[in-house]
């Protein structure tokens, strides 16, 4: 599905993952974890290139073998635990535009979400492209919230306090408004936002809703990996709960 916009897919993949060492190149269903994201991005046909930003030679080799563009290793200052995703994306975009001309939008794909589908990528890109105003806003993937915010609490003044006040606690679940959580699977971001350093999630942001829980899986722990391995063996299985989002690339 070619896009009218010049869109660059960026896959951030740091080598120094802590909870699950070397996860980006661990074999999942017979191929490195990072290859799942690259394969799906290339299959979608939405992008000029799929660029992987990594500081790690092994990840770079695996990404190139899967068909991604890996023109350099990420500078050391952008490969620390404190480096921000915004800086990583801005670095990659600046290089790409110097070499290939101006980009309209960036699609950020975390390699830790291996089961996002080509349909979701195309749908999110379509949602972004259908905006008609002079200003375009980011599109972010969300999933139905596991726990409605009306049923969550803070600990304040020595007691539990409901996040949305006491009144919603008396409502039936079907009477509560729909609630969604960011799942981290994809972000379509105007390139100008990246250049200006604007936050991705800001007023005007648009949702792309994913209802298949596999797509929202964000691998960060051994337990996450066990679930991913199961789903890789049984692709038609579904879980009854969604993962909460984490923002990272390693």
Main β-sheet, spatial strand arrangement: 4-1-5-9-6-10
Number of strands: 10
| Total separate domains | 1
Rounded mean pLDDT is 92
Give me the number of helical elements: 6
CATH architecture: Alpha-Beta Complex
Overall geometry comes to globular
Instruction: Find the CATH topology.
Output: Spore Coat Polysaccharide Biosynthesis Protein SpsA, Chain A
Major beta sheet summary: 6 strands, mixed
Q: Please, what is the CATH homologous superfamily?
A: Spore Coat Polysaccharide Biosynthesis Protein SpsA, Chain A
| Class based on secondary structure composition and strand pairing | alpha/beta
Strand coverage percent: 15-25%
SSE string, helix = H, strand = E? EEEHEHHEHEEEEHEH
Brief synopsis:
27% of the residues lie in helices and 19% in strands. It is built from 6 helices and 10 strands. Helix 1 (33-44) crosses helix 4 (118-129).
How do the strands and helices of this protein lay out in sequence?
Layout: E1 7-12, E2 27-28, E3 31-32, H1 33-44, E4 49-53, H2 57-65, H3 85-100, E5 105-108, H4 118-129, E6 139-144, E7 153-156, E8 159-162, E9 180-190, H5 191-196, E10 206-209, H6 222-233
Parallel strand pairs: 1-4, 1-5, 6-10
Antiparallel strand pairs: 2-3, 5-9, 6-9, 7-8
Helix pairs in contact: 1-4
Structure description:
The structure is a single chain. This protein has one domain: Spore Coat Polysaccharide Biosynthesis Protein SpsA, Chain A (Alpha-Beta Complex). The chain contains six helices and ten strands. A six-stranded mixed β-sheet has the order 4-1-5-9-6-10, sandwiched between helices. It is an alpha/beta fold and 250 residues long.
